[in-house]
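In line with agreed milestones, the collection of sequences with tokenised folds has grown. A representative record is reproduced below.
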Amino acid sequence: FKTFFGGGGWHAQPSPSRHSHNVEHLIELSLEQASSGVRKRLSLQTGARARTVQVQIPPGVADGSRVRVAGKGERHSGGVGDLYLRIRLKPHAKFELKGRNIHVKISVRLTTAILGGEVDVPTLSKTTLRLKVPPATQPGQVFRLKEQGIPALGRSGASGDLYATLQVKLPGRLSAEARAHYEALAALENEPKQTAKHSGK
């Protein structure tokens, strides 16, 4: 990252002075880009001069942070200023970011929640992980998948986690056979209560 900070690494920077020759530019990233890093080509307008700058953004930048690209600001008689990138992370349709942790909601069938099974959990890397769902899992139960969140900026091996919240999907329509099974289950669930009531007389 020698282009950034003059070889000093990445870190958040304060807003540059309006009277300096530094240039600030807003850049929007998806959660996937913030997680894996991305190379961006930016079109900048400084005064009457338009130019294109290519920057490499490393994994782990946070929403609202400012990062400095040394020597890519406005040219002046004493040299050249710096370019400050102000990071904005776009909302995601599936994932929610909290710190470096990612939260996602997963739908499971009623039978899977009751009997147990496996369910696919998506990740920001566009791969899926197999999550084992234990029997009698309650709606809203949260499972933690370690180190599947956003990596820490400049810290190898330090990543957030992925939290999967299970939502039980109820059947929208029952066949006659399925209804018969659910009725048998309901009768089985009511049977202990009836027995207890009868024995108490």
In short: The radius of gyration is 27 Å. The longest strand covers residues 38-46.
